[in-house]
Amino acid sequence: MDPWTAPLGGETDLPAFAPLRTAADALGRLAAHLHGFDGTLDALHWYAGDTPPGDAPRLRVQARSPDGRLVTLRLCTVDGQPLADVRLRRAGGSATAAGLLTPVPERGESIHRRFAVAAPMLTDHVPGREPVLTTPDLIAFLEDTAADLLRPRFTDGVSSVGTWIGIRHTGPAWLGEHVDVTAEVLEVRGRRFTFDVRAVVGDREIGTGQVGQTLIRT
To answer: Which segments constitute the Fluoroacetyl-CoA-specific thioesterase-like domain (predicted)?
Structure first.
């Protein structure tokens, strides 16, 4: 039995999973606030911690697009400690990828690319340490790989732009090393694509997370 999934199936109750119960409680309260919302959940960010949400967590608008279709809500404890951010997109429009890509990628399709770490990609901001690949350049590798799955499928006048980044930079890469990147389609929603991405040097992971690409007319 997988030790990570067993507790979720109710077969094991480990004290170490208390943060999951705290998260479930907080998000259940958030869902109650959003009952009847006509739209989709674009992104969710949970702020790690064991602090219970309390009896009266606060919900506030953290950001809103000019047209009101996109809104980020923040769930906080009474004393202002953030619990979760949720980005919502109101219903509206019926744009799809059909006719923009040939063919439209399906969930699970993946692509692999290899990048060489060059001198302009390095940072030496840590005194006494060898320069390493910058986080912006790692993100560029990940985004470029995801976009490369879409580019050969563009129809005339179509391109894509990066619209979501959720990356953890988990390890260093040094000058002359090769970074292998894999991007796998996680979700297709209209013109928006979310990819699971992972970067490794040999058998050592240096980055993981998700990126998003959205199709546009040029």
So the answer is: 124-216
